[in-house]
Amino acid sequence: MVAALTPTSPDDPEIERIAAALAGPGWCVSTGFLDATQVQGLVLEAQRRWQSGEFRPARVGIAGTLALRPEVRRDAVRWIDPGQASGALGGYLARVEALRQAVNRRLYLGLFEYEGHFARYEPGAFYRRHLDQFEGVQYRQVSCVLYLNDAWAAHDGGELRLYLNSGETLDVLPLAGTLVTFLSAVFEHEVLPTARPRLSLTGWLRQRLAAAT
């Protein structure tokens, strides 16, 4: 559980900026959330798990409805255990813990823990437009997507497209060290087809209850 991690300083200005944005427009793009050394540590962790065959094709749905649907999403994922994290992954999750606390102070969401996975998109892979929160299942409150791709250009594709409340869209390149956060129940989004392998660490800040009552 994320509660077992040691958070970074509560005075971290970037953490406070993200929390304020979530309390305002409900989304935030934080470039340089991690530096190159921290990103490289996470890349090595993801690559080790990929080469060990630990990734599995991602499924769609919840509980008994989980199914492979390649017309909807074509990424592969490897779930992480925050309680066993160390090194670069432990450092990142400690900062996420600071974010959890900051968001709770501002939005009173009762966020209790973090869940997440590494995600890898092979060339041609995508994830169609969706919400991260299912109807009647409200435990995922804040989506957190950290990108791990060096020297990414527009022609590489793979952008995250956010559908904003204004009716406009925002496309975010999956550049290494960039963190995108948004309210899970509010913003539909998709991953556009990628032209090269694309890595991210995708997760959610969750409430304690697993379902609405």
Outline of the structure:
By secondary structure, this protein is of the alpha+beta class. The protein is 23% helix and 28% strand.
Give a quick set of tags describing it.
213 residues; 3 helices; 4-stranded antiparallel beta sheet; globular; alpha+beta; disordered N terminus
Task: Describe this protein's structure.
The protein is an alpha+beta fold and 213 residues long. 23% of the residues lie in helices and 28% in strands. The chain has three helices and eleven strands. The strands form two sheets. The protein has a seven-stranded antiparallel beta sheet, with helices on one face. β7 and β8 form a beta hairpin. α1 packs across α3. The longest helix has 21 residues. It is globular and about 40 Å long. The N terminus is likely disordered.
Helicity level, as a percent range? 10-25%
- SSE string: HEHEEHEEEEEEEE
Report how far the terminal alpha carbons are from each other: 23 Å
Rg, alpha carbons? 16 Å
Q: For the largest beta sheet, what order do the strands appear in spatially?
A: 1-9-6-11-4-3-2
What characterizes the major β-sheet? 7 strands, antiparallel
Shape: globular
- Helix/strand-derived class? alpha+beta
Strand content: 25-35%
**Any low-confidence stretches, pLDDT <50, length ≥5?**
1-8
> Based on DSSP secondary structure assignment, what is the total number of beta strands?
11
Return the average pLDDT rounded to an integer: 92
The number of helical segments is 3
